[in-house]
Design a protein that fits this description.
Order of helices and strands: HEEHHEHEEHEEHEHEEHEEEHEHHHHHH
Largest sheet: 6 strands, antiparallel
Strand content: 15-25%
Distance between the termini: 19 Å
Radius of gyration: 26 Å
Number of helices: 15
Helix content: 40-55%
Shape: elongated
Number of strands: 14
Length: 444
């Protein structure tokens, strides 16, 4: 329960920051062009609001809604999610959105996306300035990695060391290198001291999504299962007496030299009492542990970064900004590139809602990870909002560009129907994505 609350709090705080910054972009540009903003809300206030406040002599009501699905900035004279038909039926006022030149309206509509992207670049820069950039060079993983069954099907073998993807050197273990490997035509690995070329199929990503066994993670490294820390919530290992830095070497007498070996045996002993052998301060010991329903011990294990020699790049304040911009732009490129998989059967089934997003955050509060995830979500929010779908900012931008090119506005009735259609599509997607989360939770 505590783990759920920590993840939920991180998700709510992250989304609140992103929504406020997004809507503030619309707000500040609207006021810049003297367009009246009637409401500025975090979350939606359908039927009632948790909090509302209207300063004296202000045209804007500020508040917090009860429905945490976003937020909104109600701009006068604009067809939006408020569907204020009565206002739109009145003659246009000078302070209304519809009375302003197309160029100004375009800037107001793109400001939210712009602010989200700039926020991501700023967060990435400050993360690099505060903590630096720590990464694991692939050359330091001298014993290679354990690969998933999907990767083995195309020719990878346990112990292969990644060298090149289409002749481009692979330098560090991160999402960018993994994407290079998945999308390459040929991958070169070092196998038993000899360079070996592995041809890659065109549908490598679809295979991975279909089989749901990933590419390489903590389970796939030839490292032992060592306790990094024990959570405060449900933890069979803590209850049994295991401690941080205990190195697990056997399950029920069967030797488990790697994390993969230990996790495989644990999965075969769900909700059972087992004998866990481990080393503590050089002394071999054992304890009975009753695994949970998922075959887990309830530990946070050490990762490859704890075993292999990593490198850290430190950035000065001014140096962090170009580095943060590069990281943000590369992240956006990678996300946009991955969007093509959404339109495949495997990609559609992998879509997730708030449960999936919440799962991005760790079970313990880590400010570095929190800000990294928030920056990534800010990029996603910016990209998704600029898509040319009615009800999104990109839909409004699409109609404004049509107006500029055709030199005439779409009718209010057309925009109204487009807004309704867009909202219907978005709610359908929301239901589908969160339905996937529920399905995976029930049938995992």
């Amino acid at each position: 329960m505590e783990t759920f609350l920590i993840k939920a709090l991180q998700l709510i705080l992250s989304l609140s920051i992103l929504v406020l910054v997004h809507e503030f972009g619309h707000f500040i540009f609207a006021r810049m062009f003297k367009v009246r903003v009637e409401k500025f809300y975090l979350f939606f206030d359908a039927w009632f609001a948790l909090f509302r406040f209207k300063p004296k002599n202000s045209e804007t009501e500020y508040g917090i809604g009860w429905l945490p699905l976003g937020g909104y900035c109600k701009i006068s004279g604009m067809i939006d999610e408020s569907m204020d038909k009565e206002q739109m039926a009145q003659p246009a006022k000078p302070y209304e959105f519809r009375s302003k030149p197309a160029g100004q309206r375009l800037m107001i509509m793109t400001a939210g996306v712009l602010f989200n992207f700039l926020l991501a670049l700023f967060i990435y820069s400050m993360v690099l300035y505060t903590w630096g950039e720590t990464y694991l060079p692939l050359k330091n993983i001298t014993h290679g990695m354990f690969y998933s069954e999907t990767m083995k099907e195309v020719g990878f073998q346990d112990g292969d060391v990644l060298l090149y993807a289409d002749a481009q050197p692979l330098e560090r273990l991160d999402e960018f290198a993994i994407r290079q490997v998945i999308e390459a035509q040929n991958v070169t690995v070092l196998r038993d001291g000899t360079e070996t070329v592995i041809p890659m199929p065109d549908d490598m990503m679809q295979r991975m999504m279909r089989n749901k066994d990933g590419f390489v993670d903590a389970n796939n490294f030839p490292i032992p299962m060592v306790v990094r820390e024990l959570p405060d919530g449900d933890s069979p290992a803590r209850d049994a007496g295991l401690q941080p830095n205990d190195s697990i070497v056997s399950i029920n007498g069967v030797i488990t030299p790697t994390y993969y070996d230990a996790s495989k045996l644990l999965a075969e002993n769900k909700d059972k009492e087992i004998e866990v052998g481990f080393y503590r301060n050089g002394q071999e010991m054992s304890l009975p542990v009753h695994t949970n329903a998922e075959g887990k011990l309830g530990i946070y294990a050490k990762t490859p970064l704890d075993f292999y020699q990593t490198q850290t790049i430190k950035y000065g304040f001014f140096e962090s900004f170009p580095a943060g911009i590069r990281l943000g732009v590369n992240t956006l490129k990678g996300y946009v590139n991955d969007m093509k998989y959404v339109f495949t059967k495997e990609g559609a089934s992998s879509l997730g809602g708030f449960g999936t997003i919440g799962g991005m955050f760790p079970a313990t509060w880590d400010w570095r990870v929190f800000w990294q995830r928030t920056a990534f979500l800010s990029i996603i929010l910016a990209f998704m909002n600029i898509l040319p779908i009615p009800a999104l900012d990109g839909g409004h931008v699409m109609f404004l560009l049509y107006e500029v090119i055709a030199r005439r506005k779409p009718s209010d009735k057309f925009l109204e129907y487009a807004q309704i259609t867009g909202m219907f599509l978005l709610f359908a997607l929301l239901i589908y994505a969160n339905g996937n989360d529920i399905f995976r939770l029930i049938f995992k």
